[in-house]
């Protein structure tokens, strides 16, 4: 059962009351634009790859190791909320892709007609989920680089020259850098105080001890109040450079760099990266190369938390695939701020009666939320975390990424990031997996470690 089968309301930010599930218009009622799209091959990029295009605060970004896509402008948009937000988005995207006139000589995932996407964690959230089709997309996958130009204007010229000229105009509008002012930037408590988080963790441990569930993921927030407008492009560059093994993302003010892949779909192959089990690198002893493996892989609490997450994913994915390969042993993922226990899972997707295979959007809906961001059993954990957290997660820990007209796509879990609420206000989020052996003080410290990427990127 998904968390979205639960109807409990979630407190809104700022104590504005409870957010009731929002209605979703029927897919047939949503406008379906007729898009025209042209993809052209470009010369290979330099060593900076996509980093050279991280220059506008309003760009849409999905990037890892300087590969990925950067989107500019907007050709079409769809928004949904409530229990049917995924289904409504899938229906709209299928209609748009079916009606589009696409010229694409390349066979790379992400070429042709792509959309960037972000979904709220809970159906009860006040946050609106969305699909955004950019006007222009600059993409890179290894040695292959491309430019996609998409328009809903039937009279617009669709040519290589028009695409390059439009890109040149957009790239000429570089966003300003963030100005540091004395005492102007500060981090203040969010909806959940440190004491409140400690109390929530203690209550979660008590519920686990009582046998109500085996794992609960509790999150909290903090707010960056800035003396001058946030420079989103600058933050994204810092994140991408510091956390090259993570997926750096930006969709409508949701920004961050996540180490966890919910699902990647390329043709009939699906992949996921599961993380559960965390060790802060701050204070780790020098000259001890086996420290992280010993403290994570050799720790019963960390292994137990990781196994719960793996079991949750494989149970959800199993009925949807023909076969699946899940490793017996996790590996230690090394990031600049923390170490994680990690496992990469790969599966073969079936061919359905209509000749298609499940898309990235299909699997994102089926897999969300995982035990790594909610708990086990999911339904029990979902109800309890809403009771104990005391905040609306918004898009935090929801799927974020992209999908193309062929069903290929990548959806990470929106972790290690935040939401730009205004030019002078950014809300950061972090959460921890709570099991029977969890300690409230240690879990609070872990949330600070997980906020470190955004704090450092914003120079807080």
TrEMBL record:
Residues 194-450 form the Chorismate-utilising enzyme C-terminal domain. Belongs to the isochorismate synthase family. This is isochorismate synthase. Keywords: Isomerase. It comes from Zafaria cholistanensis. It comes from the Bacteria. GO terms for molecular function: isochorismate synthase activity. PANTHER family: ISOCHORISMATE SYNTHASE ENTC. The keyword Zinc-finger does not apply. Its EC number is 5.4.4.2. It catalyses: chorismate = isochorismate. The lineage of its organism: Bacteria, Bacillati, Actinomycetota, Actinomycetes, Micrococcales. Transmembrane segments: none annotated. NCBIfam families: isochor_syn (TIGR00543).
